[in-house]
Batch of 3 targets.
Target 1
Amino acid sequence: MHASQPRLERVLPKVLVLGAGMSGLVTARILKDSGFPVRVIEARRRLGGRIWTDTSLGVPCDLGASWIHGVRKNPLTLWCQSLGIEMRKIPRGSVHFWRSGEHHHLPYMLLKGRKGFLRAALTFLHARVPSFNPKNPAKSPTDISIEEMLAPLVSDPKLGKENRSLIWWFLGLVEAINGAPAHEISIREWDIMEYLQANAVPIGGFERLIEDAAKGLDIELDTSVKRVIYGDRGVKIITSKGIFSGDIAVVTFPLGVIRSKAVVFEPSLDPAKQRAIDRIGYGGVLNKAVLLFKRRFWPHGHERLTSLPESPQSRAVFNYWADFSRSVGAPLLVGFTSGKAAKGLDRSASDREIYERVTFSLKNMFSQSIQTPEGFLLTRWLSDPWSRGSYSYGAPGNSEKDREELARPVANRLYFTGEATHQEHYGTVHGALLSAQREAIRIHRRYCCNNYTLRNLPWM
Ligand SMILES: Cc1cc2nc3c(=O)[nH]c(=O)nc-3n(C[C@H](O)[C@H](O)[C@H](O)COP(=O)(O)OP(=O)(O)OC[C@H]3O[C@@H](n4cnc5c(N)ncnc54)[C@H](O)[C@@H]3O)c2cc1C
């Protein structure tokens, strides 16, 4: 990161980076490139954390993150370009509805459900824009959950069956995007711009960036952190494989891991930080089912496929699909599940039961006689002890201030990165990367010098 050589007379602190996901590896890489002695400690036997490119089906499948959200001005785009990684842009707005082999375009469905969507939009404006709602005496935006906001609308008998199932479908979509049940998601997360941004898939999988970040780093895999002890004399990290000592530590664990108290901080984190940990939304799930077929039975160009839910409870249970055939060069479909039902499936359903839900959904969409897949993978990010959920989201009542508080260093010994610490781009890979850049600069300024440049970051 240096604009010129570091001042050699300064002894740089020994840094222990806890976790080897995107934020941990990028922090470690930037600090190492600036001359800091760095060691990374990771519980899993693999790198990447919530980035996980699996190749057991013979093609690269991303079981965690798969899209670069918002290609423009995204450091991930620059990084792919600098490594020569091809990116495949996903056509915007091309959602295809299927039921019993019959197909409808998104505009047709929007037109059909216009009454429900208009009323939903109006309900949202009433809650968020006080001037729109003369009955709001507080004159301040309401912060309730998306489910609470839409409950009166969906229970209105005048709404009609079709409009109602489109609203359920939309709620399920919001649950899939946020990786959480609608009753845990704040209406602040209802951001129409999110649906309009251009997304892209890095060909070969996200792992290629992880491999680049990890080059030359000293990493202990299969080593879970149990206790983080910090004080005047530095940090001591108690792990499943012994004690590691350093001057400072960078904590990159997912918020769910910190909240679960599976890692003990000594002394314990102060009440303000603990409040932030408890308030930020985390603990919902977005899971994937990956199916590899011999031949495609869905049309070319239908990259996002969906169906209306049979019931409110089954919304977001494998009725959103993405076709990755063009990105991986084989007929590959990925189905998503989220919301309340997904939490139950993650924790208590067998692989066989989930497989049956998956094929039931595909048969309802296309035909009862679809082929048996040649390969099948599924994820359980909620039961996974090293993630305990998929990613953070805005819960009712939490604010940007909570994320700022989560990111605040403790006693000049502990620094915090990770997607949940980024105020704007939480829940994403680039949010994790930008949080790493933020803390690496903070550490560099504090212990080395102000003489840094962003020009030699890996993605520049
Ligand atoms: C299913 C799914 C789909 C997603 N889709 C997208 C997408 O398309 N686009 C996008 O931008 N983002 C997506 N995301 C979010 C994205 O993957 C994350 O925001 C990002 O990867 C988080 O990086 P991180 O470094 O903050 O955390 P992590 O990657 O979770 O890194 C933290 C590391 O800490 C380790 N760890 C945990 N506990 C311990 C312990 N006790 N001791 C030692 N190590 C420990 C973990 O194993 C992990 O490696 C998705 C996530 C999921 C789960």
Target 2
Amino acid sequence: MDTFEAILNRRSIRKYTEEKIPQEKIEQILKAAMYAPSAMNYQPWHFIVIDKREAIDQIFKINSHAEMVKEAALAIIICGDSKLEMNKDYLVQDCSAATQNALLAIHALGLGGVWVSSYPNMETIEGLRKYYEIPENIIPVSIISLGYPAEKVAAEDRFNKSRIHNNKW
Ligand SMILES: Cc1cc2nc3c(=O)[nH]c(=O)nc-3n(C[C@H](O)[C@H](O)[C@H](O)COP(=O)(O)O)c2cc1C
């Protein structure tokens, strides 16, 4: 898929079929995530890939904004390792770049996904740490819920010239 096609037509998908996602596609998504830019090129991310029903559903029990996971074939928790990147602001930005790369790859592969928040909600972070046995130095920054799409969401025109400032504000 063309890069602009992927960027301009990606939308959050929150309804999915029951079809399982092949391992090869999961690896393509994680590869795309790992090709994201990161401060000093530290690549401080880890990915928890969750495909067991009970473990996916647990995300909704931890974060009430994540009801869509109940239908999802897969969930990925994007985590930042604070031993690899000690600056938390960079860590979060790096993991966010990885999350967006993954979402674009998901769309390009004909799948659908949505970014579910974790950081900076401490209740969600602690809930995820406890259930998925995530060590203290690891921050679960974001979650992606994904599957084969069971809904179509139309692209929006978001181009806004009033947000562009030339040379000075
Ligand atoms: C940091 C962040 C946190 C988000 N958290 C949630 C969430 O918890 N639940 C949810 O349904 N969508 C969540 N979203 C998705 C946004 O609602 C969605 O991206 C936005 O409405 C724009 O729609 P689009 O993704 O279709 O372009 C989140 C997005 C971002 C970037």
Target 3
Amino acid sequence: MRIGLDRILCDDSGLLGPGRRMELWFHGCQRNCPGCITKEHNHQPEPMLSLSVQAVYDAIQNEPEIEGITISGGEPFLQSEALLQLAALVYKRGLGIILYSGYLYEELCSSPQFREILSYLDVLIDGPYLWERDDGRAYRGSSNQRLHHLTDRYQSFYQKDRVRECRIEQQGSYLTLTGIPDAASREIWKHLKQGGNIK
Ligand code: SF4
């Protein structure tokens, strides 16, 4: 089983959750939300990377002092079989899992396979990005998105009031964006994207 990814990077800045985390952007999404920062990737027929579940898991567990993973995209549940296999491995290793999905929690609960994936998660941030409800708060793009604690693992981390932050930087020949951008950063990202080499 392979996973189509547009990003796999390790980050310890706290922008996508506590501690040192592997950040995974699953490829593909059909929603087309205005303002989506991965729209160009979503519309590509092929992902930037196609890796076996085992290879992704090996990359995660070989990172020293890793706390967990943060999965977004794209829509992770479009690759549900690979997502299930990876989430089960990461859970059994004792690492934390935070996942962003455009589906609502209630929609995910209607599928036995999706429910099994939910059983491995610590935090689910659900719902699509709605630019008209972008209130600039941390850890989610718009106020319709809800943060569900499916375990107690990250309760204290999210209780602290934080400002929304993101980081745009050069990584080799690519520019990367980490975190959730505010309106100004979205504009900068959009402008930079027109210059190419955006990952
Ligand atoms: S659900 Fe997320 S990934 Fe999909 S189009 Fe909307 S913002 Fe982009």
